[in-house]
């Protein structure tokens, strides 16, 4: 006759495992909360990127150029990509003047897969195998606040930024699930940046939702990378607004958007001014 005790023991095993998993989860959660509290008061140590290869797309102007100059000052090896050959070469000269000892500039249209592979054999798709093999690397996605919520007059832009955010977050989830802890991810969602792309756009409450100066945005982005933050929303009020979006009814969220003038951000848009 089969023993009842054997059946009881088998049934208890999953329960014990579930209890163990719960306590491990609670313990790690408490530790993470305490860690976050400490680093809120004390700046998190920054990693050293001297000698690290930093590939920057869109390096020919704007935010890409400023990021290149910042990493040049940190001693990184720069690989600069842009569709604008003249702009990329100019950034290359500026980076060398800023202290970079090794800078490589390439003309590349990142929207064309053949171009990407022709230039370096690499973008997100092909970087990952090498990163996984070495368990070392840092993926940075520049999304936007328009990748967090829909904006009137920006349907196409929002679609691309939502896609970028979702893709980067999914890749982050894959690296965590596969225990590739040496591969870091930073997803950046800034509000409007004064690079000329959104010339004429304004916000109703600039003290709360300011148009960001590029130098400030770059400083925050680089700090987030060096501190290995996964998410960076700038300005910080975006964290709170995203939280409100997740808990408020759609009617109240719409009223809030109307009050903050979010539906009218694009009203004064004139587009990026062309050089003579």
UniProtKB/TrEMBL annotation:
Gene3D superfamilies: NAD(P)-binding Rossmann-like Domain (3.40.50.720). Transmembrane segments: none annotated. SUPFAM superfamilies: NAD(P)-binding Rossmann-fold domains. Coiled coil: none annotated. It comes from the Eukaryota. It comes from Equus przewalskii (Przewalski's horse). InterPro entries: NAD(P)-bd_dom_sf, SDR_fam. Pfam families: adh_short. This is Epidermal retinol dehydrogenase 2 isoform X9.
